[in-house]
Design a protein that fits this description.
Number of helices: 12
Keywords: Hydrolase, Nucleus
Largest sheet: 5 strands, mixed
InterPro entries: FCP1_dom (IPR004274), HAD-like_sf (IPR036412), HAD-SF_hydro_IIID (IPR011943), HAD_sf (IPR023214), Ubiquitin-like_domsf (IPR029071), UBLCP1 (IPR051658)
Shape: globular
Pfam family, one: NIF
Helix content: 25-40%
Strand content: 15-25%
Oligomer: single chain
Strand order of the largest sheet: 1-3-2-7-4
Structural class: alpha/beta
Protein name: HAD-like domain-containing protein
Organism: Gymnopilus junonius (Spectacular rustgill mushroom)
Number of strands: 14
Length: about 350
Amino acid sequence: MESSDASEQTIQVPGEESNPTLSEERWTEIHFNWGGKPYKVDVADSDRLFDLKTAIYNLTKVPSERQKILGFVKGKLPPDQTRIQPTKIDCASSELFIVPTKRFTLIGTPEGDEIKDPSQLESLPDVVNDLDVDFSENLVASNRYQHDARNIRKIYEATKNLQVNIIHPLHQGKKLLVLDIDYTILDTKPLTSGSLPPAECARPGLHEFLEAIYPFYDICIWSQTSWIWLETKLVELGMVGSQRSYQISFVLDKTCMFTVFTERDNKPWTHSVKALQIIWNHFPQFNATNTIHVDDLSRNFALNPKEGLKISAFKNAHTPEAAADRELKKLAHYMIHIAGVSDFTTLSHKNWKNTVKLLAGP
């Protein structure tokens, strides 16, 4: 979903002209009034109520939790995952659908531009990992995600909106590591609270790991936080701006992620994803054959389950158990071992630790 007043983008997404899903999307212009002024948004048949609220926020800066939408449907608004069908198409799906009016009224106060303490930022990642799901165990669900018209469009939109800042030039022939930060290579909680120095929040062996794999991989950091906070973390950890024998090639933040909708335990479930296709569209030298994504949350692999490698979450950095953590040392061993494989799609990263045990011998 985009504002109908949005300016034209010039980035050409590879294959967009021949993508039937994108070309078949039907759009309807919907108008609303807010603060005595008219606004308009374009709604696609594959959009959900969540997307409408996001578009409203982009235009008005009224957060979704403050949005009171009057006259959009009869009665109470349905859940955010409900699909909007402005053109009334037949659907055999069991999902909920609504056919809205094409004009409504918005009531809500926009958020201020005040500067917040980093520890209070809403963009900080989840501390709890209780709602994770392994999509390598459910390829049917992942396949449904990948072929969902809305998700395909979200990848297209994210690709066009992304402007990558290359920190260090990419190298011909190297593979790509997409690396998460929070609870993957550092304990976020004491870093945001200031209870521990940054160096003590880092997972043991962080710099040694990056130095070991750097001859074989270009490194992309992708974090579910805002850029201003992400930049602070990288500097404090000494990953950028310091003299190291490795270099970070580029960094992506939460703006490159988008929300997907599915079910978990037969209940509606919403979470964000890191779609590797967005990177591949910008850098065609990378694809499923030479990319590995390391993260502590399997749900981030929803659109690329075979490229994902789950690492155990790193928490409680102040404890002896955390100080004894050797996860990154093992991971370096594994990634160097597979660096010579020409096609990563022939591998299964799920049992990577067993591979490391075999390499270590009896």
